[in-house]
C-alpha cells in the first residue's frame, strides 16, 4: 500500500508541481487522522489546480 501512495504522490508532483503535492499530502493526512479541516484544505487545493483557466 505505501508504494501505491508513493507512486500516486510522484505522479501528482510531476503533473501539478509543489502545490499538487501539498494538496495531496493534506488530503491524505486529513483522511488518515480523521481531520475534516485538513482533508478539506487538501481537496480544495487539488480542486483549484484542476479548474481550467482562460489564459
Largest sheet: none
Q: How far apart are the first and last residues' alpha carbons, in Å?
A: 39 Å
Counting DSSP E segments of at least 2 residues, the number of strands comes to: 0
What value does the average pLDDT take?
86
Give me the strand/helix succession: HH
DSSP strand content: under 5%
How many H/I helices? 2
Shape: flat
Which ranges are low-confidence, i.e. pLDDT below 50, for 5 or more consecutive residues? none
Measured on Cα atoms, how large is the radius of gyration? 12 Å
Secondary-structure-derived class: mainly alpha
Q: Percent of residues in helical segments?
A: over 70%
Structure description:
The protein has about 55 residues and is mainly alpha-helical. Helix content is about 85%, strand content about 0%. It is built from two helices and no strands. α1 crosses α2. It is flat, with a radius of gyration of 12 Å. The termini are far apart.
How do you describe this structure in short?
This protein has 55 residues and is mostly helical. The protein has helices at 2-33, 36-50. α1 (2-33) crosses α2.
List keywords for this structure.
flat, mainly alpha
Write the layout of secondary structure elements.
Elements: H1 2-33, H2 36-50
Helix pairs in contact: 1-2
Amino acid at each position: 500500500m505505501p508504494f501505491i501512495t508513493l507512486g500516486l504522490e510522484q505522479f501528482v508532483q510531476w503533473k501539478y508541481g509543489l502545490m499538487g503535492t501539498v494538496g495531496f499530502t493534506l488530503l491524505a493526512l486529513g483522511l488518515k487522522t480523521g481531520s475534516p479541516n485538513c482533508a478539506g484544505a487538501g481537496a480544495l487545493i487539488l480542486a483549484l489546480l484542476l479548474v481550467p483557466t482562460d489564459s
